[in-house]
């Protein structure tokens, strides 16, 4: 009898202990599907997005061929919701505090080598899904461009070592998921789900003619350099572009001592192609403002907004707006509440584009009291719209005709294309389209201290101010008048460059101490690799080739 009572007592204690362990901080969705019960803690790879009620073991992929226009999804099976896992890391926090400071951490391995770790942005996923969901699906690769944080996560993995690791052939891809909390430091929990799949990367067949250095044909306004080129290095670069190691590159032009040194076109582009280089066009705004000042249509860059607008007629007026200068807009250091680096910013460019009047949108913004005028750099596209509007109203016949007469015509640029604002003013936020050689003319104009064919188009003083370190972005990166500045370091030597920069890997590089201008155009818009591959091309191929 005593033995029986002891047995019952032990059973009750065991039950209570298990119940206590299973007690959740916040109620998770029930685990009701057999496929979920048999795969808790696993990541299942699948091709198409199959609804969970129809999902079967046979739908789980063991291998996947990585190719264009394909689909790869993951479905993650958890024991409990993310908030409950986060609670284990910091039991004193509320559910709201947990999801505002934590999310999933993804770790990618290729062939058992750790390639990339990312603490998923706090904003990825809804509060409801974090609090309750025990199953979730996201696309990693989508042929229909499905909008999801999973797609961007995959692109960042691909741009941070994944592409190099997944070379031609077969590879084992493994993903681990953990919860993480970012408080004073990042706390990561144990693995809550993992999975692996064989990735087959087909070899990209290329025509060897695509690899050969392209011959430079005679063209008006340019001499062709007779200096010897490092053929092997440029052909290695061409091969990587052809094999899509460097993706969506459309042209590379290098000018040395004022002569064409390299002229390469890819992916259907040619010498006559007009390229959408996005924010590269911002630098042209600086140039046109400098010309307008030289021509005395605008006094100087220290003029304030109140000299051009009745600021009290716009929303959110404060006296602080009166002090905002043209210079502060060019150096991205105004005090308007606008930041393209912060997606939550009211003045973010993506909030401007759908508005009916971009000038009103910008001047209606509040002043950010945390910013100090001319002291704090914060990338702000809408400010360039104000600069363009001021030029447009100040010069004869408007910005477009003034630019044609005083910049493009003197440079011999006859074929180009503006985009326009809703008010039909040339869009000074970007997307001014030129040919690669005409972008090179623009870069060479600055290399020539503002002259072209003996004519002073912009003043030497304006060139110097534009390409100076007006604002520090980081310890080794600076900003001028809508031009960037950085220094490449190769084999113990520094190569300082001023450059125009646009989304997707578009650049005009102007070397400070060498007689070199380099233009790169690409269409890798809004990808994580577009910017990174420019750095690799410069460091590993172009700087060594043109400075040899």
Structural account:
With 548 residues, the protein is an alpha+beta fold. It is built from 17 helices and 22 strands. It has helices at 2-22, 34-37, 82-89, 95-101, 127-132, 149-165, 231-242, 281-294, 319-322, 326-330, 349-352, 358-363, 382-394, 398-408, 436-447, 460-466, 528-547; strands at 42-46, 63-65, 72-77, 102-110, 113-119, 135-141, 169-182, 186-188, 193-201, 223-224, 249-256, 259-265, 275-276, 433-434, 451-452, 455-456, 471-474, 477-479, 484-490, 493-502, 506-511, 516-522. The protein has a nine-stranded mixed β-sheet, with helices on both faces. Strands 2, 4, 5, 7, 8 and 9 form a six-stranded mixed β-sheet that branches. Strands 1-3-6 form a three-stranded antiparallel β-sheet. Helix 6 runs parallel beside helix 17 (528-547), helix 7 (231-242) runs antiparallel to helix 17 (528-547) and helix 8 runs parallel beside helix 13 (382-394). It is globular, with a radius of gyration of 28 Å. The model is unreliable at 2-22 (pLDDT under 50).
């Amino acid at each position: 009898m005593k033995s029986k009572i002891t047995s019952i007592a032990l059973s009750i204690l065991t039950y209570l202990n298990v119940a206590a362990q299973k007690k959740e901080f916040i109620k998770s969705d029930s685990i009701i599907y057999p496929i979920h019960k048999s795969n808790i803690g696993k990541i299942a790879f699948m091709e198409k997005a199959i609804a969970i009620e129809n999902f079967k073991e046979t739908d789980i992929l063991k291998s996947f061929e990585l190719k264009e226009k394909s689909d790869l999804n993951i479905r993650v099976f958890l024991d409990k919701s993310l908030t409950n896992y986060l609670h284990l890391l910091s039991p004193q926090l509320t559910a709201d505090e947990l999801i505002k400071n934590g999310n999933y951490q993804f770790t990618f391995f290729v062939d058992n080598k750790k390639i990339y770790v990312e603490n998923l942005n706090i904003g990825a996923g809804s509060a409801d899904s974090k609090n309750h969901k025990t199953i979730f699906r996201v696309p990693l690769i989508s042929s229909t461009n499905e909008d999801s944080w999973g797609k961007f996560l995959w692109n960042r993995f691909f741009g941070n070592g994944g592409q190099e690791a997944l070379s031609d052939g077969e590879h084992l891809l493994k993903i681990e998921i953990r919860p993480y909390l970012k408080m004073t430091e990042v706390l990561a929990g144990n693995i809550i789900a993992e999975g692996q799949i064989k990735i087959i990367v087909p070899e990209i067949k290329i025509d060897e003619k695509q690899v050969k250095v392209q011959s430079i044909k005679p063209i008006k306004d340019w001499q062709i350099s007779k200096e010897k080129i490092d053929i092997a290095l440029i052909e290695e670069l061409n091969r990587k572009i052809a094999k899509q190691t460097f993706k969506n590159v459309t042209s590379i032009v290098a000018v040395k001592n004022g002569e064409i040194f390299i002229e390469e076109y890819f992916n259907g582009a040619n010498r006559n192609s007009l390229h959408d280089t996005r924010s590269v066009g911002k630098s042209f705004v600086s140039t046109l403002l400098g010309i307008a000042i030289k021509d005395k249509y605008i006094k100087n860059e220290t003029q304030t907004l109140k000299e051009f607008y009745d600021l009290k007629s716009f929303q959110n007026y404060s006296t602080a707006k009166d002090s905002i200068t043209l210079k502060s807009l060019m150096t991205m250091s105004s005090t308007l509440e606008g930041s393209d680096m912060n997606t939550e910013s009211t003045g973010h460019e993506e909030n401007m584009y759908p508005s009916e009047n971009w000038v009103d949108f910008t001047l209606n913004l509040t002043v950010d009291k945390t910013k100090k005028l001319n002291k704090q750099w914060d990338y702000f596209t809408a400010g360039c719209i104000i600069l363009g509007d001021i030029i447009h109203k100040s010069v004869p016949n408007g910005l477009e005709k003034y630019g044609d007469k005083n910049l493009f015509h003197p440079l011999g640029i006859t074929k180009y294309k503006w985009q326009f604002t809703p008010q039909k003013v040339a869009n000074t936020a970007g997307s001014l389209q030129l040919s690669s050689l005409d972008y090179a003319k623009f870069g060479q104009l600055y290399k020539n201290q503002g002259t072209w064919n003996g004519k002073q188009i912009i003043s030497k003083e304006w060139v110097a101010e534009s390409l100076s370190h007006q604002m520090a972005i980081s310890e080794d990166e600076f900003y001028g008048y809508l031009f960037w500045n950085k220094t490449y370091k190769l084999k113990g030597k520094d190569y300082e460059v001023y450059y125009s920069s646009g989304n997707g890997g578009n650049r005009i590089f102007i070397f400070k101490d060498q007689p070199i201008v380099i233009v790169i155009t690409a269409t890798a818009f809004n990808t994580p690799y577009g910017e990174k591959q420019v750095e690799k091309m410069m460091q590993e191929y172009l700087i060594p080739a043109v400075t040899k």
